[in-house]
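Hi W., the iron/sulfur cluster complex you wanted:
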Amino acid sequence: MLLRHTPKEITERSALVINPAKTCQPIGAMYASLGINGCLPHSHGSQGCCAYHRSTLTRHYKEPIVAATSSFTEGASVFGGQANLLQAIENIFTVYEPEIIAVHTTCLSETIGDDLKQIAIKADKEGKIPAGKYVIGAPTPSYVGSHVTGFSNMVKAMAGLAESSGKKNGKVNIIPGWVEPSDMRELKRLAELIGVDYTLFPDTSGVLDGPLSGEYTMFPKGGTTVQALKESGDSIGTLALGEWCSADAARQLDAKCKVPCSVLDMPFGLKATDRFIDALRIVAGTTVPDEVTYERGQLVDLISDMHQYFYHKRVALVGDPDQLISMVEFLVSIDMCPVHVVTGTPGKKFEKRIKALTKDMPFEVKVKAKGDMFLLHQWIKNEPVDLLIGNTYCKYIARDEDLPLVRWGFPILDRQGHQYFPTVGYKGGLRLLEKILSALLDRKDRDDPERSFELVM
Ligand code: SF4
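Structure:
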């Protein structure tokens, strides 16, 4: 038992996190930056932070993550990192020629108080930013929030590039939130099927799910172009998927360029996907095409066929707020019971939302924002579950408690597929249910006594 020191008895804790259910703000900012075409993410801090953030993303996406760093040493730590960043901007544009540099801070540069906006203006005045190239910046102190906050802050910085010409271009901005490259590809497919002219940002499809071609490309073809980001201020509306990941950017676009926004849940599962498809349909002023209706029918068919195995199964979940809200709604809609729900990201609104979604369940839900996996493990010890859903770190709890585990969320370090197979939309719902069913039925096959061991399920 690797977690044998986790006691069943729960003691009140306020200033100690054990086995966090979150990671650094800059990791989210770095991932979002990779969704801009021709972008080099830049970590304004010491080399160690940047190396950690790059390696975490590399391990999850199984692609080399490129990022630069201000390489703070003792001098920068005392006097501030302005000189390092000015030098870095000049070097990066000269040597690597990106279209844009997306700078995020770290704990150290935030504590010093470096002002990214002021440094970028100075770099521009000193001619360090070539004509037609850009530097954007997001504050990402890791001692507040989580990787989700960092992602949101960088998406907000992208929205800061938007300009308003005074003439609408008929496009719709879709802000997907922190989902996999495969999910971003799926969202675009659905928008195209419905006939929506869209700008999706950020867009890591074509960046972090590329083929092995035998040639290394520092800036892959994918990603939202800077031009599209600038034109997002002329869009007729914005669909922001997820309150935690995408809403701030959408509201900023509304305030700055008068682009009205709707904040929706991430389209995981039947109901959230229905709402997303309906929003696209209304924006496009069209009807839902047969192909999408057909996919919905397939998901409903699978739910009906396999309902007996889902019914009243108790589930523990850990992950990020936007993903968990939709997943909990999905599980409740198929008569499963999410009984323990933890996110490492702060936000009392999250707890209220989960309580509201589970109010009619036969079991009471325990939910915690700014919680940790230690607490989740203790809850499971006190009130056992049939299934665990979460990232790779859950495997320690799954092993100790002998639980089936569905890997979903960030980071997934020990399995493949998340980059290639979407879990958003109706097709993504099929994939989610396939994973859940396989975990439950494999366990049933393992545990059933010989007299009830079934060939057909
Ligand atoms: S918590 Fe702060 S210091 Fe540590 S790796 Fe993250 S950004 Fe760097």
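The pocket of iron/sulfur cluster is lined by residues 24, 26, 45, 49, 52, 106-107, 142 (CB under 6 Å).

W.
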